[in-house]
């Protein structure tokens, strides 16, 4: 992109000229720069007043334009950071070891949707300050990967697992403390001497091994410009907006980083819309040891003093001290900076920072909803690829896709995750296992069928489906169902009868009755047996509270297993079998001691007589009929779910929010 060809004639006059207050500001900045260069000759030049798009020098603090955009996500730092990194195209610095000679306004950067790290940072800082954060632009140094937006060695944020919270163990003060084994102090001293002698040799060996491992894995070699590459990012201090801890934001990715992150190698200066600070701390160990207390004059040299109190030293004494320091080279740099601070406070004590020369930052609804200038954004990670689209860019509502690979070359796919928005079927995520071809769809609450998740390899019936429901919205408390050609398992939650699992086994259909085009309703699968499992009901005795109930439909056997008491080892059981040699008749209950097996050692006398068993068998027969009907209803519900899902996938519809003015405008233009 040729920045020299951009049109500047339409820009406001504040872009092309400087006001009297801005001229005074530039003079003070020049004076500050000269003093800084004299006192710190070994430091790099400061980034203070670069040229703007019209070729006019502008102080960097006046380029920051605090703005709060009228979108809910832009009130939070994460929304601002993701918008900036998605909306702009990254351009590297012309010289990687020096800051740019120009710094364009955020309005121009938004118009052309591209910029370097300084352009990204100023725009993001303007949005964060407008949202109420204590944010600052940072001019410093970073690693090659961060400066070049190379994330191929990093783990994708979508794949990061949340940190596990360790379980707190209650200390037992009454625990017996056993004495430690006695050790010889002389032996420990001798062992420590031997370790010190072998340490240098081990360090050399480990360094050689590390170099070999680096070469084998194929990681990038050491950067010859390590520590010299210039980068800009955002600093957010704790305090405002309830930020608990100070952190960095990389404007290229929008990701937060700790101030101790080793990717940040040093800081030269920081600024916001009110002031400018120079870092006076040692950065040989990166930024992990830096103090971000900007009120500390030994850590940060401020350009315009924020204190209204005049200097305690007179001008004459300050000049005498300056002459003494020039004649005495043994004085430290801190003393020189202290005198410079006193002189500077006298000069700029009453100076106020002029307002920003940048025009108001505006982002239309269409630009906000479609931030990708090239249609989509592709980010490569370690063994992963992340693709992003704007809402409504795809007909199926796809907005994000993550592909996980088995190798670093990204040739063999392992898993694909897709995220959707604005779908009327409320599908928001789909996971595809490329090894097993298993597809899992996830739905938001509100689906007509109360679907929460659906796992399948094909939408054909009886091919292996696992469906999860929002059980709180169902009357029967069903939260999960698995079905294939031979079995069906249902899981329940919060039922009054304490039922938690129902398992049904099916037999193969009769081939004689199968016809071409016949449906599953016309030729149902024979039910072999139905198993039900119940939780413990504390209101019943254990040997009256059923734990497992098995209906062997074909063999005409009913088996009951009761819960155990605390002192029991063998559960009570009742088994009703079919009498051998007797034909089964409808509505007939035949009970004898030959077809009843019972073990209830702790039951009362009433549970041991035949009349009680007869009544129990009669109830079980009726419940078996109801269970068979419930199984058929579950089969019909699964067929209906598959039919609805097929129709939803064949006719995907996207809903348009009443607040999406840009999308509604497009629909209105299409209908006119």
TrEMBL record:
<comment type="similarity">
    <text>Belongs to the DRC7 family.</text>
</comment>
<dbReference type="InterPro" id="IPR033551">
    <property type="entry name" value="DRC7/lobo"/>
</dbReference>
<keyword id="KW-0966">Cell projection</keyword>
<feature type="domain" description="Dynein regulatory complex subunit 7 MORN">
    <location>
        <begin position="374"/>
        <end position="657"/>
    </location>
</feature>
<dbReference type="Pfam" id="PF24667">
    <property type="entry name" value="MORN_DRC7"/>
</dbReference>
<dbReference type="InterPro" id="IPR056290">
    <property type="entry name" value="CEPT76/DRC7_peptidase-like_dom"/>
</dbReference>
<keyword id="KW-0963">Cytoplasm</keyword>
<feature type="domain" description="CEP76/DRC7 peptidase-like">
    <location>
        <begin position="230"/>
        <end position="303"/>
    </location>
</feature>
<dbReference type="GO" id="GO:0030317">
    <property type="term" value="P:flagellated sperm motility"/>
</dbReference>
<keyword id="KW-0221">Differentiation</keyword>
<dbReference type="GO" id="GO:0030154">
    <property type="term" value="P:cell differentiation"/>
</dbReference>
<feature type="compositionally biased region" description="Acidic residues">
    <location>
        <begin position="197"/>
        <end position="213"/>
    </location>
</feature>
<dbReference type="GO" id="GO:0007283">
    <property type="term" value="P:spermatogenesis"/>
</dbReference>
<protein>
    <recommendedName>
        <fullName>Dynein regulatory complex subunit 7</fullName>
    </recommendedName>
</protein>
<feature type="region of interest" description="Disordered">
    <location>
        <begin position="187"/>
        <end position="213"/>
    </location>
</feature>
<feature type="region of interest" description="Disordered">
    <location>
        <begin position="310"/>
        <end position="329"/>
    </location>
</feature>
<dbReference type="InterPro" id="IPR038765">
    <property type="entry name" value="Papain-like_cys_pep_sf"/>
</dbReference>
<keyword id="KW-0969">Cilium</keyword>
<keyword id="KW-0744">Spermatogenesis</keyword>
<keyword id="KW-0175">Coiled coil</keyword>
<dbReference type="InterPro" id="IPR056291">
    <property type="entry name" value="MORN_DRC7"/>
</dbReference>
<keyword id="KW-0206">Cytoskeleton</keyword>
<keyword id="KW-0282">Flagellum</keyword>
<dbReference type="GO" id="GO:0031514">
    <property type="term" value="C:motile cilium"/>
</dbReference>
<dbReference type="Pfam" id="PF24656">
    <property type="entry name" value="CEPT76_peptidase"/>
</dbReference>
């Amino acid at each position: 992109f040729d920045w020299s060809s951009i049109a500047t004639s339409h820009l406001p006059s504040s872009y092309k000229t400087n006001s009297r207050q801005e001229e005074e500001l530039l003079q003070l900045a020049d004076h500050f720069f000269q003093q800084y260069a004299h006192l710190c000759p070994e430091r790099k030049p400061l980034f203070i007043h670069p040229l703007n798009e019209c070729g006019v020098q502008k102080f960097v603090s006046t380029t920051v334009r605090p703005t709060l955009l009228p979108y809910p996500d832009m009130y939070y730092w994460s929304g601002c950071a993701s918008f900036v990194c998605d909306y702009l195209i990254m351009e590297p610095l012309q010289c990687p070891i020096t800051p740019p000679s120009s710094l364009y306004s955020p309005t121009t950067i938004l118009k052309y949707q591209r910029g370097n790290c300084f352009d990204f940072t100023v725009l993001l800082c303007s949005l964060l300050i407008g949202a109420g954060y204590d944010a600052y632009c940072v001019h410093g140094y970073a690693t090659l990967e961060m400066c070049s937006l190379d994330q191929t060695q990093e783990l994708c944020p979508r794949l990061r697992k949340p940190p596990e919270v360790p379980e707190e163990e209650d200390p037992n003060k009454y625990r017996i403390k056993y004495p430690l084994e006695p050790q010889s102090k002389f032996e420990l001293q001798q062992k420590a001497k031997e370790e010190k002698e072998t340490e240098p040799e081990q360090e050399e060996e480990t360094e050689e091994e590390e170099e070999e491992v680096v070469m084998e894995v194929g990681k990038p070699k050491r950067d010859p410009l390590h520590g010299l590459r210039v980068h800009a990012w955002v600093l957010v201090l704790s305090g405002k907006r309830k930020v608990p801890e100070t952190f960095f934001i990389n404007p290229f990715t929008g990701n937060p980083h700790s101030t101790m992150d080793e990717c940040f190698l040093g800081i030269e200066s920081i600024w916001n819309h009110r002031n400018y600070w120079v870092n006076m701390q040692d950065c040989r160990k990166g930024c992990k040891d830096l103090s971000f207390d900007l009120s500390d004059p030994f850590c940060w040299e401020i350009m315009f003093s924020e204190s209204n109190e005049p200097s305690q030293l007179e001008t004459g004494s300050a000049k005498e001290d300056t002459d003494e320091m020039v004649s005495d080279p043994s004085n430290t740099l801190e003393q020189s900076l202290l005198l410079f601070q006193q002189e500077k406070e006298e000069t700029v004590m009453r100076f106020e920072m002029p307002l920003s020369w940048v025009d108001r930052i505006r982002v239309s609804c269409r630009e906000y909803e479609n931030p990708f200038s090239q249609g989509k954004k592709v980010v490569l990670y370690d063994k992963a690829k992340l693709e992003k689209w704007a809402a409504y860019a795809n007909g199926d509502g796809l907005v994000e896709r993550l592909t996980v690979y088995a190798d670093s070359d990204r040739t063999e796919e392992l898993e694909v995750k897709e995220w959707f928005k604005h779908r009327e079927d409320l599908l928001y995520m789909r996971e595809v296992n490329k090894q097993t071809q298993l597809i899992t769809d996830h739905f938001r609450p509100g689906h007509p069928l109360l679907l929460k998740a659906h796992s399948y390899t094909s939408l054909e019936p009886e091919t292996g489906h696992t469906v999860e429901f929002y059980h709180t919205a169902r009357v029967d408390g069903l939260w999960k169902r698995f079905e294939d050609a031979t079995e069906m398992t249902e899981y329940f939650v919060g039922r009054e009868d304490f039922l938690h699992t129902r398992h049904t086994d099916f037999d193969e259909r009769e081939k004689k009755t199968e016809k071409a085009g016949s449906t599953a309703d016309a030729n149902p699968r024979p039910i072999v047996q139905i198993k039900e499992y119940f939780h413990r009901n504390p209101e019943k005795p254990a040997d009256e509270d059923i734990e497992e109930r098995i209906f062997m439909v074909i063999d005409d056997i009913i088996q009951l297993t009761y819960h155990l008491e605390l002192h029991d080892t063998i559960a009570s059981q009742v088994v009703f079998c079919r009498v051998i040699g007797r034909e089964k008749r409808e509505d007939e209950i035949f009970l004898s001691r030959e077809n009843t097996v019972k073990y209830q050692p702790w039951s009362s006398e009433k549970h041991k007589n035949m009349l009680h068993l007869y009544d129990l068998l009669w109830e079980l027969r009726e419940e078996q009929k109801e269970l068979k009907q419930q199984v058929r209803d579950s089969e019909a519900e699964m067929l209906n779910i598959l039919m609805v899902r097929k129709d939803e996938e064949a006719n995907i519809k996207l809903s348009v929010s009443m607040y999406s003015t840009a999308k509604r405008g497009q629909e209105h233009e299409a209908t006119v």
